[in-house]
TrEMBL record:
<dbReference type="InterPro" id="IPR006656">
    <property type="entry name" value="Mopterin_OxRdtase"/>
</dbReference>
<dbReference type="Pfam" id="PF04879">
    <property type="entry name" value="Molybdop_Fe4S4"/>
</dbReference>
<dbReference type="GO" id="GO:0022904">
    <property type="term" value="P:respiratory electron transport chain"/>
</dbReference>
<dbReference type="InterPro" id="IPR006963">
    <property type="entry name" value="Mopterin_OxRdtase_4Fe-4S_dom"/>
</dbReference>
<dbReference type="GO" id="GO:0043546">
    <property type="term" value="F:molybdopterin cofactor binding"/>
</dbReference>
<dbReference type="GO" id="GO:0015942">
    <property type="term" value="P:formate metabolic process"/>
</dbReference>
<dbReference type="InterPro" id="IPR050123">
    <property type="entry name" value="Prok_molybdopt-oxidoreductase"/>
</dbReference>
<dbReference type="GO" id="GO:0003954">
    <property type="term" value="F:NADH dehydrogenase activity"/>
</dbReference>
<dbReference type="InterPro" id="IPR006478">
    <property type="entry name" value="Formate_DH_asu"/>
</dbReference>
<keyword id="KW-0408">Iron</keyword>
<dbReference type="GO" id="GO:0051539">
    <property type="term" value="F:4 iron, 4 sulfur cluster binding"/>
</dbReference>
<protein>
    <submittedName>
        <fullName>Formate dehydrogenase subunit alpha</fullName>
    </submittedName>
</protein>
<dbReference type="GO" id="GO:0046872">
    <property type="term" value="F:metal ion binding"/>
</dbReference>
<dbReference type="InterPro" id="IPR027467">
    <property type="entry name" value="MopterinOxRdtase_cofactor_BS"/>
</dbReference>
<dbReference type="InterPro" id="IPR006657">
    <property type="entry name" value="MoPterin_dinucl-bd_dom"/>
</dbReference>
<dbReference type="InterPro" id="IPR006655">
    <property type="entry name" value="Mopterin_OxRdtase_prok_CS"/>
</dbReference>
<feature type="domain" description="4Fe-4S Mo/W bis-MGD-type">
    <location>
        <begin position="18"/>
        <end position="76"/>
    </location>
</feature>
Length: 707
């Protein structure tokens, strides 16, 4: 019936005039395997089929994945450049739009200097595009101000892994090993809502007797089925993890040989965790002593275990500390570098892993090199064909770029594949910053909330209209295949950057005619770095169904399991965390007596720019809501469906109440996929982690009023 052509990723169908193109989903880090059905006569995508032989998801897809194709030919797609005139967008030619961009970019740099311009990237793009964002900012525009939306996603995990393990790869083991695990310790990861296709691995292991411990202020679907649910107060994760370490040491669960041979700071860490007795830990976290003891004993006695976490622990002003202490649990047990064991942060965005490795970060260069290292700068400058002294210095993090706008240092911004008007914390401040810009360019395929502030909107393509690679949550580099030609006059992000570079007189540095040319340069730029992709080729990806980095040469097998022999630190040993616990930046008070936390729902993705345009998904969850415990609601005479006003020190918003006993009775939960007056991030706290510069999305103080 069908014949699979692996290299082209095409299935020839018995349905006349249709074919299937093999690719991966555009949403989360699971990167579910799929076949897109294309009508060759109309040139439109008409459906999707799961790919049952993709080893990570085995044919599973979530509601977002099965409807993802509906955005490609959507009636609301931007198909021509738009220029704002008298407060309204009008259609323009590419030359008109590029003329305006060139004029403003050059005038602003002549008046205020190179750093008057800035670039705000995104990690739903391919590795090739993410790589090019850093080069575009630093070479084409000559600015130090470049950062990306992954700052709000994976940055604390990156910071924590760099401190403890020496390299930031989201998972130290391939996910196909998870079914052989004896214990999952899961914190701040609502798997069923955020990564539904991952659940099959948990259930396979559970069928073989694996235990599961879940840390969450809400009784999520997996928490409901866990052996122990640690119903923690938001913002107390490092205290809980230190409490776990206390019991692991106290009760003899430490792999002493592993720690002696492979870890630093053991004696200092033991001294630090003495304070965190179960009683002391319980007082801070709100979790009972009995639950803490039970969880520690289950984890400590499990031969193979995986510590897994997500944004719940990372989107805090102490997110890096949290990651370090949870990672230290796996190190004490001697689990990292072994079969079906280790630690994993679960990637939120589709290319959250690859997108942070190759140059979009304010202080980073391709291959996870650092701008602060002269040798790193020298190597990348040579690849790019510029002098080392021409490389701009490090910039600032995503949210801090809005501070620079307020100070008058940044005068223009180019936003790509991101919607910070919704996704950034304290959004009213962000909106005010956009208004203060002299000039804003946005590349997108829908008119997002950020586009509303733009002077020029450039029509970009969807993932189905271009090719390239992404890196999934395991660290496996995979292929995204082009399904169809771009709609209307839209262009790929790499083509847009190339066109602007030419207008800025830097075209010779962007000679690419196709994506494989970018990939070949990108391989060389990453060579020798911590995230080394040099040995990965398109042919290898096709033949091997993805290649794990680091992969330094074409005859290297790739690295499915990290740190088998040594860690990527100066002495080859991991650094156990020696950190205490500090309160969140904002705690409940007389005026704001409760805790607000935020998160996802299964039917939407990030700022909702795509999913809010899919009819089925909107029917399932049309609006955000304020989820609270009936006991908390009763204090304010609130019933299910009533209107409530939530107020934090930053702003207020109105929401419908949704009552559930599956949440702590001192917390309120609101999903974050909506814009404008429905954007919960107008309430959230922009307090930043001192290392990752991650805002504290997951915990702030809130006041409740019945409307």
């Amino acid at each position: 019936m069908t014949q699979f052509l692996a290299k082209e990723g095409v299935k020839n169908l018995h349905h006349e005039g249709e074919k299937l193109i093999t690719t991966h989903c555009c949403y989360c880090g699971m990167q579910c395997g799929m076949h897109i059905r294309l009508n060759e006569k109309t040139g439109k995508v008409v459906g999707v089929e799961p790919r049952y032989d993709w080893p990570v998801t085995l044919g599973k897809m979530c509601p977002k994945g099965v409807t993802a194709y509906q955005t490609v030919d959507h009636e609301e797609r931007i198909t021509t450049p738009l220029i704002k005139k008298n407060g309204q967008f009008v259609k323009a030619t590419w030359n008109e739009a590029l003329d305006l961009i060139e004029k403003n970019f050059k005038q602003l740099q002549q008046k205020y200097g190179k750093d008057a311009l800035s670039v705000y990237g995104g990690v739903s793009m391919t590795n090739e595009k993410c790589y090019l964002v850093g080069k575009y900012a630093r070479v084409a525009l000559g600015t130090r101000f470049v950062d990306y939306n992954g700052r709000f996603c994976m940055s604390s995990a990156a910071g924590g892994f760099m401190k403890t393990l020496g390299t930031d790869r989201g998972s130290t083991l391939p996910w196909t090993e998870l079914e052989h695990t004896d214990c999952f310790f899961i914190s701040g990861w609502n798997a069923a809502e955020c990564h539904p296709t991952s659940i099959q691995w948990l259930w396979k292991a559970r069928d073989k007797g694996a235990k599961m411990i879940v840390v969450d202020p809400r009784e999520t679907q997996i928490a409901r089925l866990a052996d122990v649910h640690l119903d923690i107060k938001s913002g107390t994760d490092s205290a809980l993890a230190n409490g776990m370490l206390h019991i692991i040491v106290r009760d003899g669960y430490v792999d002493e040989t592993y720690v002696k041979e492979r870890c630093n700071n053991y004696e200092e860490m033991k001294e630090q965790v003495k304070l965190f007795t179960p009683e002391y830990t319980s007082k801070i976290t709100g979790v009972t002593v009995e639950k803490i003891e039970k969880a520690a004993h289950i984890y400590g006695q499990s031969p193979r275990s995986v510590v897994m976490f997500c944004r719940g622990i990372e989107q805090q002003s102490k997110g890096v500390d949290n990651v370090c202490v949870y990672t230290s649990m796996a190190l004490l047990r001697g689990q990292i570098g072994k079969f079906a064991s280790g630690v994993a942060t679960v990637t939120g965005q589709g290319n959250g892993q690859g997108g942070r490795e190759h140059g979009q970060k304010a202080d980073a260069l391709p291959g996870y090199r650092k701008i602060a290292d002269p040798e790193h700068v020298k190597y990348v400058a040579e690849v790019w064909g510029i002098k080392p002294e021409e490389m701009p210095k490090a910039g600032v993090s995503a949210y801090e770029m809005f501070d620079e706008i307020q100070k008058g240092n940044i005068r223009a911004m180019h936003v790509m594949c991101s919607n910070p008007a919704v996704s950034a914390p304290n959004t009213e401040y962000v909106w005010d910053s956009f208004r203060k810009l002299d000039f804003l360019v946005v590349s997108d395929f829908f008119l997002s909330e950020t586009c509303e502030f733009a002077d020029v909107v450039l029509p970009a393509t969807t993932w189905a209209e271009d090719e390239g690679t992404t890196t999934n949550l395991e660290g496996r580099v995979i292929r995204i295949r082009k399904v169809k030609d771009p709609i209307g006059e839209s262009k790929t992000d790499w083509q847009i950057m190339k066109l602007i570079a030419e207008r800025m007189g830097k075209g010779k540095f962007f000679p690419y005619e196709n994506v494989p040319e970018i990939f070949e340069e990108f391989r060389i730029a990453s060579k020798g770095g911590k995230a080394d992709y040099y040995g990965i080729t398109y042919d290898r990806i096709d033949k091997e169904d993805g290649v794990f980095w680091p992969c330094p040469s074409e005859d290297h097998p790739g690295t499915p399991t990290m740190f088998k022999e040594k860690f990527d630190t100066p002495n080859g040993k991991a650094n156990l965390a020696v950190v205490g616990w500090q309160k969140p930046a904002e705690v409940p008070s007389k005026d704001y007596p409760h805790t607000l936390t935020t998160g996802r729902v299964v039917f939407h993705y990030l700022s909702g720019t795509q999913t809010r345009r899919v009819k089925f998904l909107m029917e399932q969850c049309p609006l955000p809501y304020a989820e609270m415990h009936p006991e908390l609601a009763s204090r304010y005479n609130l019933a299910n469906g009533d209107k409530v006003k939530l107020t934090t020190p930053r702003s207020s918003m109105l929401l419908d109440v949704r009552l559930t006993k599956a949440i702590r009775n001192d917390h309120v939960f609101v999903p974050y996929h909506w814009g404008k007056e429905l954007a919960v991030n107008q309430l959230t706290n922009p307090a930043l982690d001192p290392i990752s510069r991650m805002p504290e999305f997951k915990v702030c103080a809130v006041k409740i009023e019945k409307v």
